[in-house]
Specification:
Layout (H helix, E strand, L loop, with lengths): L10 E3 H8 L3 H9 L6 E2 L5 E4 L2 H14 L3 H8 L10 H8 L2 H25 L15 H4 L17
Antiparallel strand pairs: 1-3, 2-3
Length: about 160
Amino acid sequence: MSDQEFIEGPLMAIGEIARRSGVAASALRFYESLGLITSVREGSSRRYFPRSCLRRIAFIVFAQRIGYSLEEIAEQVRTIDANKSPSQEDWKRMTRDWRARVRQRIEELERLDMELDHCIGCGCLSLKRCRLSNPDDRAGRAGPGARVWLGDTLPKGR
């Protein structure tokens, strides 16, 4: 029994999947290496994907745009048979938390927008007054990451 017998629907070459999905073939190979999508190989070792994987790729792309890591996405897609299209119930389950993530991203972007307005209005980038200049590396004492952009209050002085 060949791998193809376990795959739902017609198979498509990697170039066709890349064209249809708008995702580079190299990214598709990477997704496959992570177990996000599956392919079968025929004699020449060329990859062929089931057409149903286009829906999985769409899910991956949208989830990344919302801010999910590939590791988080993998946790969700591993709950679905790799050779079948996700059902409506699968989609509901996988996207349940997206709205909260979108709202969180909107809040972060609004904070960033306000900071940019402040910088544009101020125009100084004074090393003494501008909180974005990070005198004495106060942001480093607040923890890893872009603390000022994340809205954290920085420790005072040295």
